[in-house]
Give the backbone structure.
Amino acid sequence: MNRYGLGQVSRQVTPADIANLIAGGSIVCWFDGASEWGPRALGGRSILADPLRDGVVVELNRRVKFREPFRPFGLSVAEDALAELIDIAQAPATLAPYMLAVGRIRDDRLSAIVHRDGTVRYQSVTCDYGPYHQLLMALRNRIGLAAVLNTSFNTMGEPLVETPDDAVRQFLLCGADALYLDGALVEADDLPLDTLAAAREQAWSGRGVDLLRLALQQEAAGYPDAAQETATRLTPCRSDGPGRIRESAALMMRLAELAGADETAVERAEEVLQWSGLPPAAGDAARLLTEVSAQGRAIGPDAARFLAAIAPPGRASAIVARMLS
């Protein structure tokens, strides 16, 4: 935490304090003890939220995980409350501790986190889990259920958090409200704006992921604002090769067009053509054909195929259909 300038605002807390934050609407990054082993987050490296709150799934996807909306979330439940809250008869009990089973809810208060197929993935938590079980007991007193929404502690483009440094860095890069790190707590609202900005800049510099790929993933998942923030950090150069430069320019063109920045979109469109291996005359022809089609005039199939060939990914079929109509 000191490395990122957060040490002076961190404080020691208990699981009951974290339960208060979650019950109050906070989304909390949770790092406790040894790393878990397996395909699911099990309370060692998790992002936690109140499972009773309306819209919590959408909010987690929109400002923290930036992942596709169709993906389900999990529910961690104290062992003694599991059968009361979820129909667990459909899966072997041996799967429950590892969040490898799904069931239908018995308590309608959990409807906010039910997947579109009517089920919820669940984990049974015993007292052996230490602070994580204590958190559930405290939540029972605060929200009336010994349960918490649990998703893996990682942001798009990166694997599950492993080390404390990973935890601090990924917390800074996502939109969560707080980080619990082995008994220490940092809340984003407690950080002076300049401290938070400097820490996030440092976190970005240590990310070590392909920023173009990340921005394209965020765009494809339906989060253009996140893609725009990532794309502003792209610095393509000639050594990247024409394909990567063209793909980056196409991304910036689409984002600018979506934001209504027509002048920027046109500049990026020209950059796409420049790096498409086409002679200048082909670029002039593309602009003319696009203008003509925009006026409602049909163009020939060869011209339509040409424009489709240089269109950004996902746009080709739409161009052909419109221009041949």
About this structure: The chain has 13 helices and ten strands. The radius of gyration is 24 Å.
